[in-house]
Amino acid sequence: xxxxxxxxxxxxxxxxxxxxxxxxxxxxxxxxxxxxxxxxxxxxxxxxxxxxxxxxxxxxxxxxxxxxxxxxxxxxxxxxxxxxxxxxxxxxxxxxxxxxxxxxxxxxxxxxxxxxxxxxxxxxxxxxxxxxxxxxxxxxxxxxxxxxx
Length: 149
What we know:
Structural class: mainly alpha
Strand content: under 5%
Shape: elongated
Helix content: 55-70%
Radius of gyration: 20 Å
Number of strands: 0
């Protein structure tokens, strides 16, 4: 279980990010189920090292469903849901923390919807933001590409 995608993602989270993810997962936006949240609670008790004995599939299952016979597929369905939620959290956190990435994605989405004028405005704003930066990263060069006719 320690090699699972979910544990690999969670092991990169800081204490603050783990707490934020827990809140995110229990928020109505996450569309969670109570049993999935119980599973997350059990997994997070092992943070940040995630000891393998705590993550044994049977143990996790019985934590979620104390009076049921172990069914691996049911557990893996909940783990899969938590993994998708963690991935979503990573992306949303990135866009929340990076105004330039957010602006770039806005420009792309506006262009994809046929709103060329609004897309161009978003690109101009992004160009202004990038020109204020000393560091030239991939967002800078991608914006330069978008501006090229």
